[in-house]
C-alpha cells in the first residue's frame, strides 16, 4: 500500500479541490464510478453473488445496444423529415433529391460513426475509459496543464466541447420525447393540443425517477432497443420492397449530384443531415463500460443496418406518397392501433435515449469535479451493489427546468431540430482536433500519417458545424448559451482554485522548518488525533500553521492528509496509499484516486491505520477544515466580476465535510478572508 511520491497529478486542497464527492452511504473502498448509466448487474449481465463469472460478448452487445445507441437510434423519428424540408424548401420531394439526401445520410453514418469513432477515436482510451475528458488526460502534461493560473489551449478546447455536451443533454430529451409523442397527431388529429402537455408530463416523470435509480428497469433496456431496431428494420424493408430504386442512394454519386443541383442550399441542408449522426459521441463516452468490441458489434449487426434500412424505407414511402412527408416515420404504419403501438414504442425508446444523455451529464459533471473544473456537487449512488449509478440533484433539476422551457418555447420537434446541430457538431470537431494532438504528441505518429486523418475527419465535421452555425437564430443559440454558461463556470472555477492554491502556498511554511521549531515554541500536546487536509505535500497547511500560532496546542498525533486525483480512471492499487512518518507525532498520508473514483476520508484513515500502522485514535479524532470568504474587491489578480462569480460558486458548492465523507460532528472549521 505504499509507493513513491512522484506523480504528475494535481493534488486537492483542504476544502476539496480536485476530489470527488463521496457516496451518501456507509464507507466502502473507493471504486470507479462508471460513465455509463447502468452497471452490468443492473442490466442482468453480472452475477452479483459470483462476480468472477465472465460476461459473454453477446450479452454485452445486447446491453450496449440498449444503453449506447439510444440517442442515435431515435434519430429516424425526425431526421428525414427535416432533411427534405430543408432541401426542397417547401416544394414536393423529387426522386433525385431523396436519393441525394439518403446518400448523404448513409455516408455520414459510415464515415462519421463507423470510420471516425468506431475505427479510430475509440482507440484513444484512458485505461479503458472514453469520452472527451478522458481524451484530455491522454494529452501531454505540458499542453493540458495550466501554467500558473492559465489553462493550456487544448484544455480550453476540451472544456468548450464538454460544455457543449450539456447543451446536447438538454436538447436530446426535449426533441426525442416531443417527436415521439407527435405521432399521436396521425392517429387522432384531436390529440394535437395534448402533445406538449404529454411531453412535459413524460419529461417531469423521467427526471423525477432519476433519484430512485434505474436498477429495476435497466435490464429491460437492451431488449426494448432490440425490439426498436427490429421494428425500424422491418418497416424499412416493407417500403423498400415497394420502391427498391432508393437503394441506388448507396452510391456516393447521388450525394455529389445533390450538391451540384442544390449548390449553396445543399450546403445549408447539412444542418439537417447531421441529425442522423447525433449520439456518435456516446459511443466513445460509454466505451469504458462495455468495451470497444461489443459496441462495434452492436453497431455493425443491429444499429447501422436498421437505421439505414429505415431511412431508405422512409425515402421510398415519401416518393410514393408525398403527403407522408408531414411525418414519414409514423406514416410507415396505417393510421389507427398500429400508430398508437408505434407511438408507445417510440416513447419508450426516446426515454431510453433521454436517460442516456441525462446520466451522461451526471458522469461528465462527476469527472469535471474530479479534475477541478467544476464546483463540488452532491453525488448520490442509486445502487447499493454497484458504484456506477450516480445521481446529482443539482444537475438533474437544472436539466429538467431547462428541458421544459425548451419544449414550451418551441412546441414542435421540427422547430427544435434547428437547435440540435451546433452542440453535436462542435463537440465532434473538437474531438477530432484533440485526437490529432494525441496521435502526434502522445503516440508519436508522423505528420504525413496524422494530418491526412485529421483532414478526413474535418471534411465532415467542419461542413456540418458551419451549416449548423447558420441556424443560430433559428434555435441554435440555445445550446450555445447553455454551453457558454457552463464554460464560464468551468474557467472561473479553475482559475479561482489555481489562484487560491497559489495563495495557500505563499502562506504555508516548509514542513521541515515547522517541525524544527516545535520545541522552541513549547507547544502543549494533548491526547487524540488531529486531521488536517493538505493541498501541498511538502508544506504546512495554513490551517495547521494558524492553529499552532494562535492556540499553541497540538494533538499527540497529527495527520496531514493529501488527496491526489490522477489523470487515470482508477488509481494503481499499489500506489493508492502512501504514508510517511515525519517525526514528532506527525504523519503524512497521500491518497491517490482516479478521476472516476470517489475518495472517502474515513475509509482512507482506516486503511492507513490497519495497513500502514499509523497510530490513529478513532475515539478522539478531530478534523480541521478551512472555509474561505472571498472579498471580490478590485485589488486581486482575478478581477471583481470573476471573483464575484467564484465566490458565489464557492458558497453554493457542497461543503467539504460532505464532499470528503467527513463526520460533521468531528469537524472544526477555521475561516479566512481572501482577495484573489
TrEMBL record:
Q: Which UniProt keywords apply?
A: Cell membrane, Ion transport, Membrane, Potassium, Potassium transport, Symport, Transmembrane, Transmembrane helix, Transport
Q: Which InterPro entries match?
A: K+_transporter, K_trans_C, K_trans_N, Kup
Function, in words: Transport of potassium into the cell. Likely operates as a K(+):H(+) symporter.
Q: Which family does it belong to?
A: Belongs to the HAK/KUP transporter (TC 2.A.72) family.
Report whether Metal-binding shows up as a keyword of the record.
Answer: no
Which HAMAP family has this protein been placed in? Kup
Ranges of residues in domain K+ potassium transporter C-terminal: 527-676
- What protein name applies here? Probable potassium transport system protein Kup
Provide the residue span(s) of the region labelled Disordered.
Answer: 1-35
Pfam families in the record: K_trans, K_trans_C
Q: Where in the cell is it found?
A: Cell membrane; Membrane
- Name all K+ potassium transporter integral membrane domain ranges: 60-515
The residues that cross the membrane are: 59-78, 98-118, 151-171, 191-209, 221-242, 262-285, 297-320, 340-364, 390-411, 417-438, 450-470, 476-493
Biased composition regions of type Polar residues, renumbered to the chain: 1-12
- Record's superkingdom? Bacteria
User: What organism does the UniProt record list as the source?
Assistant: Pendulispora albinea
This protein's membrane topology, according to the annotation, is: Multi-pass membrane protein
Catalytic activity as recorded in UniProt: K(+)(in) + H(+)(in) = K(+)(out) + H(+)(out)
Amino acid at each position: 500500500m505504499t509507493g513513491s511520491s512522484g506523480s504528475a497529478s494535481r493534488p486537492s486542497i483542504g476544502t476539496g479541490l480536485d476530489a470527488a464527492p463521496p457516496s451518501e452511504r456507509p464507507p466502502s473502498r473507493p471504486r470507479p464510478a462508471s460513465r455509463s448509466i447502468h452497471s452490468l448487474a443492473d442490466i442482468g449481465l453480472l452475477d452479483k453473488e459470483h462476480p468472477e463469472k465472465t460476461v459473454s460478448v453477446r450479452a454485452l452487445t445486447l446491453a450496449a445496444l440498449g444503453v449506447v445507441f439510444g440517442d442515435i437510434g431515435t434519430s429516424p423519428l425526425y431526421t428525414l423529415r427535416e432533411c427534405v424540408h430543408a432541401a426542397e424548401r417547401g416544394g414536393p420531394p423529387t426522386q433525385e433529391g431523396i436519393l441525394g439526401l439518403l446518400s448523404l445520410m448513409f455516408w455520414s453514418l459510415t464515415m462519421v460513426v463507423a470510420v471516425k469513432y468506431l475505427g479510430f477515436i475509440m482507440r484513444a482510451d484512458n485505461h479503458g475509459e472514453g469520452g472527451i475528458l478522458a481524451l484530455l488526460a491522454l494529452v501531454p502534461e505540458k499542453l493540458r496543464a495550466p501554467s500558473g493560473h492559465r489553462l493550456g489551449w487544448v484544455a480550453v478546447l476540451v472544456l468548450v466541447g464538454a460544455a457543449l455536451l450539456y447543451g446536447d443533454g438538454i436538447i436530446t430529451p426535449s426533441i426525442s420525447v416531443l417527436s415521439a409523442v407527435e405521432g399521436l397527431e396521425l392517429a387522432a388529429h384531436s390529440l394535437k393540443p395534448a402533445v406538449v402537455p404529454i411531453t412535459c408530463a413524460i419529461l417531469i416523470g423521467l427526471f423525477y425517477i432519476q433519484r430512485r435509480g434505474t436498477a429495476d428497469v435497466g435490464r429491460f433496456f437492451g431488449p426494448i432497443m432490440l425490439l426498436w431496431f427490429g421494428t425500424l428494420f422491418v418497416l424499412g424493408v416493407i417500403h423498400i420492397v415497394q420502391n427498391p430504386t432508393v437503394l441506388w442512394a448507396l452510391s456516393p454519386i447521388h450525394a455529389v449530384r445533390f450538391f451540384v443541383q442544390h449548390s449553396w442550399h445543399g450546403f445549408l441542408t447539412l444542418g439537417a443531415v447531421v441529425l442522423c449522426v447525433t449520439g456518435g459521441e456516446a459511443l466513445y463516452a460509454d466505451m469504458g463500460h462495455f468495451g470497444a468490441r461489443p459496441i462495434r458489434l452492436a453497431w455493425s449487426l443491429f444499429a447501422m443496418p436498421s437505421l439505414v434500412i429505415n431511412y431508405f424505407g422512409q425515402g421510398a414511402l415519401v416518393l410514393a406518397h408525398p403527403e407522408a412527408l408531414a411525418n414519414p416515420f409514423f406514416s410507415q404504419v396505417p393510421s389507427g392501433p398500429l400508430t398508437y403501438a408505434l407511438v408507445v414504442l417510440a416513447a419508450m425508446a426516446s426515454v431510453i435515449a433521454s436517460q442516456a444523455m441525462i446520466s451522461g451529464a451526471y458522469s461528465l459533471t462527476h469527472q469535471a469535479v474530479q479534475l477541478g473544473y467544476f464546483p463540488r456537487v452532491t453525488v448520490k449512488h442509486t445502487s447499493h451493489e454497484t458504484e456506477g449509478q450516480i445521481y446529482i440533484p443539482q444537475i438533474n433539476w437544472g436539466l429538467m427546468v431547462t428541458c421544459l422551457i425548451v419544449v414550451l418555447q418551441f412546441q414542435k420537434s421540427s422547430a427544435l431540430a434547428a437547435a440540435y446541430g451546433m452542440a453535436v457538431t462542435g463537440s465532434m470537431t473538437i474531438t477530432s482536433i484533440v485526437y490529432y494532438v494525441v496521435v502526434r504528441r502522445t503516440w508519436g505518429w508522423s505528420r504525413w500519417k496524422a494530418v491526412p486523418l485529421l483532414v478526413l475527419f474535418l471534411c465532415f465535421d467542419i461542413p456540418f458545424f458551419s451549416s449548423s452555425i447558420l441556424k443560430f437564430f433559428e434555435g441554435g443559440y440555445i445550446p450555445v448559451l447553455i454551453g457558454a454558461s457552463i464554460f464560464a463556470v468551468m474557467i472561473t472555477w479553475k482559475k479561482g482554485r489555481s489562484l487560491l492554491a497559489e495563495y495557500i502556498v505563499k502562506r504555508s511554511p516548509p514542513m521541515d522548518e515547522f517541525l524544527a521549531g516545535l520545541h522552541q515554541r513549547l507547544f502543549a500536546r494533548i491526547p487524540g488525533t488531529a486531521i488536517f487536509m493538505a493541498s501541498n505535500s511538502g508544506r504546512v497547511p495554513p490551517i495547521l500553521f494558524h492553529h499552532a500560532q494562535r492556540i499553541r496546542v497540538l494533538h499527540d498525533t497529527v495527520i496531514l492528509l493529501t488527496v491526489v486525483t490522477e489523470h487515470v480512471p482508477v488509481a494503481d492499487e499499489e500506489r493508492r496509499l502512501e504514508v510517511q512518518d515525519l517525526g514528532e507525532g506527525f504523519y503524512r498520508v497521500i491518497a491517490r484516486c482516479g478521476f472516476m473514483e470517489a475518495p472517502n476520508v474515513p475509509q482512507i484513515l482506516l486503511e492507513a491505520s490497519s495497513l500502514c500502522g499509523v497510530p490513529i485514535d478513532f475515539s478522539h479524532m478531530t478534523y480541521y477544515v478551512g472555509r474561505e470568504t472571498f472579498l471580490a474587491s478590485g485589488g486581486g489578480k482575478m478581477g471583481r466580476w470573476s471573483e464575484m462569480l467564484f465566490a458565489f460558486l464557492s458558497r453554493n458548492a457542497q461543503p467539504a465535510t460532505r464532499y470528503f465523507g467527513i463526520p460533521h460532528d468531528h469537524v472544526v472549521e477555521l475561516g479566512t478572508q481572501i482577495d484573489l
